[in-house]
């Protein structure tokens, strides 16, 4: 699939960026060599602002942990802290410590490094399939279909800027806002909620772990927008600085990221230049597939 960006005086054709996501999640393992820890190497996706996208390093860290766990154990939760900004022009080294392998659960600690310094610290838990109690949150009603909503490319078409082109055509996920998007303009109504539909532009391989990791990648795109929306801010607010501080995620049910998913978000609190946001992710048929929580630093000029 090829997309075309029409700028003021030129057009740029770009290949389907889903292949970029697959490449990012294909870590090198040095032919199985290990010390006390398992070591992997991953590429970085180039970014207009030259900082590694947080969702990328989360997803790659998960893949590194998955590589060290028996195939019958699936990730069900992870908790990570962003320690330093990453350089999008440099690869990332991942070290995995095998904390525990019990009868049903395995735990892994993953550190992501650049230039010998950790940029992310994460612990993930994996579980063998089991039967037990079951219930789920209900998917919100009255949400418009994704096909009826404008794409990011349609919203940013008139902006001939590297960041607008990246968000429109280089990100592997098609993201469509249920409420007016916050890319450029602050919202008229202040509400501590946000919702988007999202899926990869192209098909993904039939590898369940790849879809779980890719969902972590996408979960970092818009999670803080519920904080911004409730405070009358857009991503282009002059002088604003935003950075993810930590990220937690729980996977509840199987998922495919190449099919439409509804990501419903809300912010219970913001204070001290920090905002907390939570999100529920639903498949189109109403299955609650994952839950996310993130705290971010949000500084605005006084």
UniProtKB/TrEMBL annotation:
Residue ranges of domain Acyl-CoA thioesterase-like N-terminal HotDog in the record: 51-127
**Pfam families from the entry?**
4HBT_3, Acyl_CoA_thio
Ordered alphabetically, the record's keywords are: Hydrolase, Lipid metabolism
One Gene Ontology term from the biological process aspect of the record: fatty acid catabolic process
Q: Which residues form a coiled coil?
A: none
Domain Acyl-CoA thioesterase 2 C-terminal residues, every copy: 191-297
Q: Which residues cross the membrane?
A: none
Q: Does the keyword Metal-binding apply?
A: no
GO MF annotation terms: fatty acyl-CoA hydrolase activity
User: Could you tell me what reaction this enzyme catalyses?
Assistant: a fatty acyl-CoA + H2O = a fatty acid + CoA + H(+)
The record's similarity note reads: Belongs to the C/M/P thioester hydrolase family.
| Quaternary context | Homotetramer.
Q: What is this protein's record name?
A: Acyl-CoA thioesterase 2
Which species is this record about?
A: Arthrobacter terricola
């Amino acid at each position: 699939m090829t997309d075309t960006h029409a700028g003021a005086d030129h057009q740029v054709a770009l290949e389907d960026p889903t292949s970029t996501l697959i490449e990012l999640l294909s870590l090198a393992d040095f032919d199985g060599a290990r010390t006390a820890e398992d070591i992997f190497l991953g590429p970085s996706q180039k970014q207009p602002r030259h900082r590694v996208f947080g969702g990328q390093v989360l997803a790659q860290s998960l893949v590194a942990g998955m590589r060290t766990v028996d195939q019958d154990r699936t990730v069900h939760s992870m908790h990570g802290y962003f320690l330093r900004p990453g350089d999008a022009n440099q690869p990332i080294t991942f070290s995995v410590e095998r904390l525990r392998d019990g009868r049903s659960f395995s735990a892994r600690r993953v550190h992501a490094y650049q230039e010998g310094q950790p940029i992310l610290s994460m612990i993930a838990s994996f579980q063998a399939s089991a039967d037990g109690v079951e219930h789920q949150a209900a998917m919100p009603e009255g949400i418009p279909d994704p096909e009826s909503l404008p794409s990011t490319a349609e919203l940013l078409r008139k902006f001939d800027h590297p960041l607008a082109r990246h968000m429109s055509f280089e990100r592997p996920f098609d993201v469509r806002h249920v409420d007016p998007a916050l890319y450029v303009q602050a919202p008229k109504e202040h509400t501590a909620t946000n919702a988007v539909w999202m899926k990869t532009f192209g098909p993904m391989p039939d590898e369940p772990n790849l879809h779980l990791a890719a969902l972590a990648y996408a979960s970092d795109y818009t999670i803080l927008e519920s904080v911004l929306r409730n405070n009358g801010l857009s991503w282009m607010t002059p002088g604003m600085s935003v950075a993810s501080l930590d990220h937690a995620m729980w996977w509840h049910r199987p998922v495919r990221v190449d099919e439409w998913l509804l990501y419903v978000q809300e912010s219970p609190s913001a204070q001290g230049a920090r905002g907390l946001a939570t999100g529920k992710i639903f498949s189109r048929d109403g299955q609650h597939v994952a839950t996310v929580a993130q705290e971010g630093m949000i500084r605005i000029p006084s």
